[in-house]
Amino acid sequence: MSCRALFLLLSAILFAGIAPTVVRADETPANAVRAAEFRDEVLTDQQGDHRYVVFLPPGYDPSRRWPVILSLHGAGERGHDGRRQLAVGMGAIVELHPDQFPAVIVFPQVEETDERILTAWSPQNPDGRRALQMLADVEHRYSIDASRRILAGWSMGGFGVWQVAAGSEPGFWSAALSVSGGATAETASKLPAGLPLWAIHGADDRIVNPARMVQAVSAAAKSGRTVASTLVNGEGHDVWQVVFGRDEVRRWMLDPASVNPQSLDWSSKSLAGIRQQNRLPERDFRASAVIARAVAIRIGNSAFEELAHGIPQAIPRERLQGQVADIEQSITYGGATIRAGIRDITWTADLAEAQVAAVEAERLVIRVGLKNLTLHCGSGDLAGGEYEASCGPFDVVLGRRRPVWVEVSTRPRVQGGEILLTQRDIRFTIPDDNWYVTEPGWARASGPGLTPDLVKVGVVGGMYRAKARVESAVRELIPPLIERIEERLVQVPPDSLASLLWPLPTAPPRIRLIPEGIRTDSRGVSVTVGLAVEGPSTAESVAAFPTATPIVEGESQGVIVGIAPRILSSVAEVFADDPQARLDLRDAPDSALTRLGDESLLRRAAPGLAEGADDFELRTVLSLPRPFTLAPADAQGDSPTRLSLRLHAPSVLLEISRRPRDRSAAWQKCVECTLSLDQNLSVELNGDTSGRTVTMNWDANPVLHGHAKFAEGFSPSDASLNGDVLVDAFASAWREWTGNAGTTSPVDDLAVGPARLRLNAIPVRGGRIWLEFEPASR
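That's the Alpha/beta hydrolase family protein sequence above. Prediction below.
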């Protein structure tokens, strides 16, 4: 074999079939570590079996003593499955970062759903007592340091922290952390002396008024108890994510003397990194209803252009690298079998620029400009007959002078509730003046006429001859990159928008926006979106509510979103008459509404309830037997940044019940007061160059009508009923609550990296509410 023939053979073998199989960097398995454990446990008592979870940290060893944390969950995690309490609060952060919690953690679950929320964890109640029994059982069976016994809870559990701590002996708890909670003055005054308790609350909490924490801390101080408190500006009820996810808070729980709560920075800038580190995977969503075609979206080409500017910074550098499978090739030449391969191949690139545009029906084009696209080959080898050769490492570098452009023509489609860019046609050619191949750093050769220098020359020359194969290799690398862009590019409005208009004194529903249809033309993309609603109770079947929101065509070059107002009534229908959507007014977020549960008021309305007053407790539960509606209302002063809505609640039910104080019998319905309510509210868009907020204010003059009657089966000795007392009390409480219930909530930008589309207008047209997003730079 001549040297020239060998040179050509070396080139052909090493670079034939170079189109690689991509192994993405984020799919490389991490080094194995000793895993933490979440153990399912059962406590058995006279009432039956009660499930809970015990977390054992990585490296748990019974030869040493471990701190123990009793974690109390919020109202939304009540149930009997023994696992739901891990989905929100401390459990979610522990699952995300188990190595950051060097303690045994006990996760009990409140089973009762027809009792008060704010006292569910009280040691006076069955669920509170069982939680302490579970803790005692864990301390008996595991290796626990009783001098480091920690109490923590969020929301309902935050109230529980105060109640459980107040019922404990001094020294029982080494630390207590209450998040989004509070306490009565009586409870706060009973805290054990010397207990380190830290109360943290979001200043924008719409579910539990921050005043509850402030009042509890003040009451504790008046009783000589020292409680650290932190009010976090810009955070709402879900402040738990930056609390349990913060290293200083975790260290404080384990050793309160090691961290000064007042020294920490809780500014939005400092919390941004904490929130990023504790970004949680989407938890299970159990749809109770789906409202078809609830939202229409139009994304114009100017919006795509703006969002595309942010793509290079939105895709992390580590996503622009990966491995390529080894290339093996075997051929027969001159009667000898020659085997060759390139090994340890990796690739890296810089995403310099991206362009996106809808160009015609069913066609969206994405162009990406790549710089320093490098195929790094660790080594190459050849063996057969009389010859052996090896070399390495060497690089193939594209786009050193300027970006090399890859154009991907896609067809947007909705599949499985997601927008996907399908039928990709990838176009890419390498400019002759914008790529090069480096000489291998070393080479070895054996065989007649074969030298290391010849091997090096063969590698470089072979790569240049294999330009078409290199182009093919680059095309194979592009689909994963397009998937990264796809995740960020075609956006639906953030789910938070749907909860801004929730008008009731209860937690807004959890919703998910689901793309249903998509259409592309030369000016942009139109999308229809359904809205899935998760009800308070697990639904046996998913209800369907059709709407007629059309797909949007138009000249808008930004993003416009059309919302059918009736979707809120459809959402409300999911909550109507649901047992878990009932609100015991003693737990209402406002003191005006809690007065409707005052026993003296209820006995004044129904004197027959005074009989056996010392033996019976009373409660008032609010529910919506029929869904409410929220529709645009004609009002003076409306503008593109201000709209008026009218709430119509045809049936608001106040249900008054009684039960023996010793709980020897179930609640008995006594009085039903049914009301209708009509009231206007205004929604105003505000903001500056830093962002947008929506402020909702209620009209001061609601229209209320109502009547009361004794519940079926209840016959008091005194049959007089002053229904007007209840109607007037509700009217007064509702006016006071709505007068104080004006809320200002931030509206998230539609963002890709630093590129922002910001809500600029909220007009009403054609009976629909429209949200108009434009580039934030305008």
